[in-house]
Amino acid sequence: MGNRTGVKSRKSYDADFKQELTTMLMSGRSARELSQSFGIAENLLYRWKSMAMMKTKTKTKTGDSESGKSAKLAAENARLRAENERLKTDREILKKALGLFSKSD
Fold first, then answer.
1. 0.85 exceeded by the pTM?
2. Which residues contact 24 (CB under 8 A, 6 or more apart)?
3. CA dist., res. 24 & res. 44, Å (int)
């Protein structure tokens, strides 16, 4: 028992590599496919994914008010653009009507 000839050492992976594989996993590639392609255990990929998701949840909790404000601004912007288009159409109709009435005099 004291003699270990086949001792494996843990591999360490840099943050960019982890992020790239996590992005691939979240984009729809299967963990099995990535595991086989890169020689990494599937459970390690899932662990990296859950850690990345926890980090984004922590970031969004602090930035919720910011994202809520930007969503409100985007909605208001869309509403104002639609109203602007409607007013342009109304103005064109009124111009045509004014032209018709002024010709009939």
1. no
2. 34
3. 14
Tokens 């996590």: give the residue: 22
Average pLDDT in the chain: 84
Domain ranges of the chain: 15-103
Q: Which residues contact 21 (CB under 8 A, 6 or more apart)?
A: 34, 38, 40, 45, 48
Query: Two tokens at 62?
Result: 């602090």
pLDDT tens digit sequence for 45-92: 999 999 988 887 776 665 566 777 888 899 999 999 999 999 999 999
Residue 35 contacts residue 41 (beta carbons within 8 Å): yes
Instruction: Transcribe the chain into DSSP letters.
Output: ----SSPPPPP---HHHHHHHHHHHHTT--HHHHHHHHT--HHHHHHHHHHHHHHHHHHHHHHHHHHHHHHHHHHHHHHHHHHHHHHHHHHHHHHHHHHHHHH--
Tokens of 41: 């255990």
